[in-house]
Specification:
By secondary structure, the protein is α+β, with helices and mostly antiparallel strands. Helix content is 36%, strand content 20%. The strands form two sheets. Strands 1, 2, 3, 7, 8, 9, 10 and 11 form an eight-stranded antiparallel sheet that branches. Helix 2 packs across helix 8 and helix 3 packs parallel to helix 5. The radius of gyration is 20 Å and the shape is globular. The relative contact order is 0.18.
């Protein structure tokens, strides 16, 4: 049986469909495991060019929703630009320059890290986390990778006279606006509202809707909230992610690309001409993200050294490379 024989669902009424295999884990020539999920690729005109699984089924995009959240913050009146706007849409690595700018953004509006309602955390980047712990520091709210988004949310609440203590309540004026922006960008209603790892409301949409949203941001008219977010992220990708992160590499090395990963192995990306993709690895394994993303970019016709760099996912046996995680489609 080939990996994607799983595309055929078991027979019988009420039998749940089995998602196709997106990636295989091969160790020492032995197929050790599989990662299943759904994926969609959009052509430049917005039509579906390729799909696996059920890309219409709602998923929580997790941090891939952040560009929409940042656009809502702009629509609510906060005049962010440059690095500050990129950081408002970030899952930052917790590098010193990230934390310094978050602290500055808070202070500019009479706020402090104590106002953040992010859970205390270590830097997202393992290298930064090791250095952070070695310096004797403990988990802090400002270090959590969503602190830039939360700083911007708090700042726009101060600007509008909205309650800062309840800024994460789904009924808060800011979160109601985020809900509308997500629906507008995705072109579909939010299927469910949950709570993200940072505590913010999280809107579920289909992967096709998520790809449409990213496409709409890169093609938006200059000066609109959506285009301002896309432009800031693409101009300052190290503030969106970090110096050792694939989103940064892609936005640096593929001009005009907008890329944002999310927890539980979600990825969305749009190229400058409107080609776009979104996928979710069902088991949430982030080790499959790079190989699946690289293969999806190849299917969209992208030929650049960064694609191979993103797609490399070696498996180690002791100090030697003995296998890989590889795309299976």
């Amino acid at each position: 049986m080939t990996s994607n024989d799983a595309l055929a669902s078991p027979s019988g009424p009420g039998t749940p469909a089995v998602s196709p295999v997106l990636a295989e884990v091969v160790r020492s020539g032995f197929l050790e495991g599989r990662h299943r999920g759904s994926l969609v690729l959009l052509a430049a005109d917005g039509s579906v060019e390729f799909a696996l699984g059920d890309p219409a089924a709602p998923v929580f995009p997790r941090s891939s929703n952040k560009p929409m959240q940042a656009a809502a913050i702009l629509r609510a009146g906060l005049d962010l630009s440059g690095e500050r706007l990129a950081l408002a849409a970030a899952s930052h690595s917790g590098e010193d320059f990230h934390l310094a700018l978050v602290a500055t953004m808070l202070a500019e509006h009479g706020l402090s890290p104590a106002d953040l309602q992010t859970p205390p955390d270590l830097p997202l980047d393992p290298v930064e986390a090791e250095a952070y712990l070695a310096s004797g520091r403990l988990r802090e709210r400002i270090t959590m990778n969503c602190s830039g988004k939360h700083a911007a949310m708090l700042a726009v609440c101060v600007l509008n006279g909205w309650d800062t203590a309840t800024y994460l309540d789904p009924a808060h004026p800011l979160q109601r606006l985020v809900h509308r922006v997500v629906e507008d960008a995705a072109g579909e209603p939010v299927a469910s509202v949950g709570t993200d790892g940072c505590g913010a409301p999280l809107m579920a949409i289909g992967l096709t809707g998520l790809a449409r949203a990213f496409r709409s941001f890169v093609l938006a008219e200059p000066g609109t909230a959506e285009r301002r977010v896309a432009d800031a992220m693409r101009a300052h990708p190290e503030y969106v992610a970090g110096t050792r992160r694939p989103d940064t590499w892609l936005m640096r090395e593929l001009p005009g690309t907008l890329s944002k990963m999310g927890a539980e192995a979600v990825q969305a990306l749009a190229l400058a001409d409107g080609r776009a993709l979104a996928f979710k690895v069902e088991d949430g394994s982030t080790r499959a993200l790079g190989p699946v993303l690289a293969r999806a970019l190849e299917l969209l016709g992208v030929d650049a050294p960064v694609v191979a760099r993103v797609g490399r996912a070696p498996l180690m046996g002791g100090a030697a490379e003995v296998g890989e995680v590889r795309a299976a489609f």
